Fold this sequence. Notes:
The structure holds two protein chains of two kinds. By secondary structure, chain A is mainly β. Chain A has helices at 2-23, 337-341, and strands at 36-38, 41-51, 54-62, 65-76, 80-91, 100-104, 109-124, 130-131, 135-148, 164-169, 172-174, 202-212, 215-224, 231-241, 244-254, 259-261, 270-273, 279-280, 283-286, 291-294, 297-300, 303-306, 313-318. Chain B is mainly beta. Chain B has one helix at 2-27, and strands spanning 33-41, 47-52, 57-64, 67-74, 82-86, 91-99, 118-131, 138-151, 174-180, 183-189, 200-210, 219-229, 234-235, 241-244, 250-251, 254-258, 264-268, 271-272, 280-281, 288-293, 297-300. The A-B interface holds A 203-204, 223, 225-230, 256-257, 259-264, 318, 320-323, 325 and B 239-240, 258-263, 293, 296-304.
Amino acid sequence: MGGRRLSLVAICLAVAAVLLGAAGAGQASLRRGKVEVQPARTYGYLDLGRQKGYRLVLYVPNKRVVVIYGFRLDRVRSENFGIRYSLYAVRNRGDLEQGVVRGRFGALGRVDLHFRPNGKVSKDEPPSGCEGGSETAKSGSFVGQLSFRGSGNYFHVSSSKGRAYLAHSPRLRCEPGRAEEVPPGSPRRYVTPSPLISDRHSIALFDASGNSHGRAVRISAVHQEGSPPGAEVQVGIVESRHGVAIGHGIYLEGGRGTLLTSLPGAHPATATLAPPAPFFGKGVYSEENQSWSGSLGVRLAGLKVPLTGPGFRMHLCVANPLKDRNGCEYFKGEPPADERAARPGWVLR
Amino acid sequence: MRALRVAVAVLALVVFAGFGGGAAAVAKGRAPERWLDMDLQGSDGYSVHISSGPSGHLNLEVSKGWFAATYVTRDQLAAPDRVKAQLRGLGTVSVRFHPRGPVRQPTTPYCSKKQRPTLQPGLVRGTIKFAGERDYVRVEADEAKASIEESKRGSCRYASPPPEFDPRERDWASKFTASGDGVFFLARRYQPGAIPTGDALYFTETGELFKETPALPWLLIWREIKVPAPASTFQDAHPEHLTISPPPPFSGTGSFARTPESVFTWTGDLALQFPGLDPIPLAGSGFEPGYCLRESGCIDQHLD
């Protein structure tokens, strides 16, 4: 859904670009009616170091939002890949153009920082297919107050001494499809999870979403055709507390026994989900009772969240690869992976 | 075993690269390719064909009916009219060619007139001794009919398909494959009457490489067998479950099925007995199975 909304914004901007292009056609080497505009943007970054396996970052994607995020890469049984993340987003009350970042994270902490450049400036040419000037990034440091603890006092951040920069990207005119999406201005948009799992060619898929202790929770598990025993599992947890948008998530590749289902055509259909740590317990889905029960839960940074219960909506797909050539494709209405990867939780620098 | 399979594949590439290199050499005006071929009759109805070519390898092919085995080793001389090779405890070939009669230029299917080879008939004299594993075949001779084939503009030697190939065999309705270390199993089911030999066809090929030691040269053995059978040996009425029970020299049953993990397993006691060998298992966790319906697509299961 979010991706669609962003696309609408992009379309509106493209239309605006056409009108602007008509006014200043003499400077444009791109043909009129064939451009979209990437608006000017200022953004900031501060490396907050590592804690408990998480890399912590303060990210100011635009003048309106401040995000503190942490992510951690895991290896399960030395070969399977996993990632955990936590995101906290609030309104920026400072003037980022002047290098000021102010955010109140309620009881979790606060940020009141001022950027001080150290004189080093790097320039990047506009991306391929765009024109309009170079992006400049000023290196330096943030000074001021920073205190952040995160959910359950899991993190303790009080220093802003890490590597920092403040970047400015000018307004660019781009070929259609080349412009970057405008970073959303709503803090909640930065913590809303999207599927990291591709369900194309999946032959077993279980998805459950609902509310657990005031948090929106979604768990998905997918087994791809031809892959060894096991399943990819993702959990996204979102909540809003005192003006702070909070998101936690995990993706991992679970081994044998992670997802067991009834066979195609069997009714009542059943599924059992038992991913490895940091998950615990087991969830059982029954088509007959329309129930999703059991002890399944997950431990994430400062949280222990049950993942089953009566308030969940469930979907189970068990596809026959010879009949359903594209697999379950349950997520296909949601934003594609390349859009999801651009979210702040995944900007690796 | 995986290393062995890789080694076999690499060696096969070397062997075939040798063939291709020869053709390229001819095209660049270098020496033409020469092949020395010998035909003999082995014991128990087996035919034996021995050849040595520009790659410097000796091939000894044993065949009978749907079975064929090829033993490949290094030709120590690699001369156009002489062969000397040790078949690692299975025998020796050490002969010299003697021409008899005029050179011919026979018509070869799938070969243009420009590429047509010349053939010098004759015989070889020397020592030919070969005994297959557990003596399933024996051949011993000090003289045999032979010929030297020479190609001036690229070889047509591998241009034509094997004579037993029937193009209708490509029109399978469903098929199953299982690949293991050095073993490939293929089963095909056909629409009734599509091929004359039966409604199912089973094919197995194995490759086995014995590495060179200070005392012994390397030896590569390819074995293959193709067996026609009735459709009842290939049961795939259920869309995700298949049972295969081919006739001798196969034995036992293989079963392809989906588990609650949505993994497709290939289990059972299916085995194949090549002449002179113990039965080779063709099912189990070491095999990567694949199942295809012509009208629908394929299921391919990868190993851990």
